[in-house]
Structure formats: C-alpha cells, structure tokens
Amino acid sequence: MSDAVGLTVPELPRNNRLRGRTAIVTGAGSHGELAGTGAAMAILFALEGAKVVIVDVDGDRANHTLRAVQALGGVAEVSITDITDIQGAQRVAELAMDKFGSVDVLINNAAIAPDESKRSDELWRRVIDINLRGAQLMCDAVIPHMTRGGRGSIVMIGSIAGLRGGAGVAYSAAKAGMIGMAKSLAFTHGRSGIRVNTVAPGHVAIPMGLGYSGGGWDNAVNARHTRAQAGLSGTEGTAWDVAYTALFFATDESKYVTASTVAVDAGTTEVMPIVMLPYLSSTPDSTAG
C-alpha cells in the first residue's frame, strides 16, 4: 500500500492496458484516505496508460484525486462539472478532445445515495437526475466522438440494488435504469464500434456506502461486519475490485463483450438472501461513489 497525497492506494501493476487512450470518469473526486470507486478507476486507468479526465462537481474532491494520479506518475485533467447540465456534459467531452485528442472510454460513476426514509418528489428527482439522467447526458456527449473514432467503451457503474432492489426506491430505480440504458445503447451503437456494459457493485467499502467522513467510520463495526457477511467470501469488497472489473470492460480484452452486466458482490445476488442496509453517506450531496 502507498499513500498518494493522503489517498491510500494498493500496489498496482502497470501493464499499459489502456496506453494511448483517453478515459472520462465521472464522480471521480475523493476526500480523506479511502478511495471511492471513481477515484480508484481514475488512478488505475492512469497507471494503465490512459489519459484521464477526472469529473466531479466538487473542485476540492476532484483535485484530491488529481494529486494522487500525478503523484503516481499518471496524466490527468480535472473538469469541475455538474453532469446534469447538458452544456456541462458537452464541455467534458470537448475538454477530453482538446487536451488528449480522443474519447475512448466513458465511466458513468457519479451518483448519490441519500437517506430515502422520508421520500419526497424533490428527493426522487434529484436521485434520478444525477444517477440516471447525468449518465444519459454524458453518453450523448461522447458517443459522436466515439463514432467518428470507430471505437469506444462505455461502462455504467450500477449496483446490485438495480438487479434485486434495495432500501432506496429512487436509487434502485436509477441503477436499474442504467442497466437498461446500457443494453439499449449497446444495441443502437454496436455497429459503430461502441460497447456498453454495466458493473454492479455489491457491499463494498467506499465512502458513499459506509459513511466515511475522514474522522472515522459511522457505525463502523456493525455496518462493515454485516456487509462482509452478505457475500460468499465473508469479506468486504473495495473500490479496487470494482475498478479492475471496469478496466476489463474498458480494454480490448473485452472486445466481444457488450450489453452485459457483471455483479461485483461476492455472489450476493446469485445465492445469498437480500441483506437490507440503510444507505449511509457522509453528505447527501456526495457524488463520488
């Protein structure tokens, strides 16, 4: 393990699996020492040779990840962007083209998972807007560039809540929508060389899911133990487990794989009963998964 500017990063091999490619990762900001899925993917992809556009609505979080990438020798740019804004999504794609000359990989990771125990129309709209519509706008922004380039890989970061449901109705609906969107986009754009797949994480130790706020774990012992027991391995997953699955989809190693969904959950969705846990987040506005 290494401490890259305050962010704990495991020892990662550098095999240049994405050399010469540009990857956009939304919700890639970070804070504290624990990486979320977005930060982990940005770092891993950069170490595998990609030039990365780190997208987050929070500039401090985006730059925290940028410093980690640069400390490890990677190349990245930051885009402080609200992806629910059409022009904002377009600007992200334009930044990638202007700085790096292509858009080869899009990771739709930005998400919120607020407490839905007191549901409201405003909360529903906000969750759907960020988690689902933001992904759609980013796809709309990059697909023309991918089509002209003759190739592209789009990866939706969904959730097992989108496969089996969960405590958050809006969150589960949005994540299920991402899976459906991925299949439809794969069907529509496959002949243009664009593949679209979904990674559905289970109970992984990330800031958004476990309520890590830099000062310690909220309900750490109970939450982490319960989540670990939900999978067949009896251990909890990490952001890096998700990142490596997304990396496979991003590379040519998966060139014959599209419209697929892979659960990164230690078998939870296949053979284990549903374990319902409240969604804990350090702040309802956190968009780094």
Structural account:
The chain has a 7-stranded parallel beta sheet, with helices on both faces. Strands 1-2 form a two-stranded antiparallel sheet. A two-stranded parallel sheet has the order 9-10. The protein is built from 10 helices and 11 strands. The chain is 43% helix and 17% strand. The protein has one domain (11-270): Rossmann fold. β3, α1 (37-47) and β4 form a beta-alpha-beta unit. With 289 residues, the protein is of the alpha/beta class. α1 packs across α9 (239-250) and α4 packs parallel to α6. Keywords: Oxidoreductase. InterPro entries: NAD(P)-bd_dom_sf (IPR036291), SDR_fam (IPR002347).
Structural class: alpha/beta
- Total helical segments: 10
CATH architecture: 3-Layer(aba) Sandwich
Low-confidence regions: 212-218, 275-289
Order of helices and strands: EEEHEHEHEHEHHEEHHEHEH
How many strands appear in the DSSP assignment? 11
- The shape, in one word, is globular
CATH superfamily: NAD(P)-binding Rossmann-like Domain
Q: Taking strands numbered 1, 2, ... along the chain, how are they ordered across the largest sheet?
A: 5-4-3-6-7-8-11
Provide the helix percentage: 40-55%
Portion of residues in beta strands equals 15-25%
Sheet with most strands:
7 strands, parallel
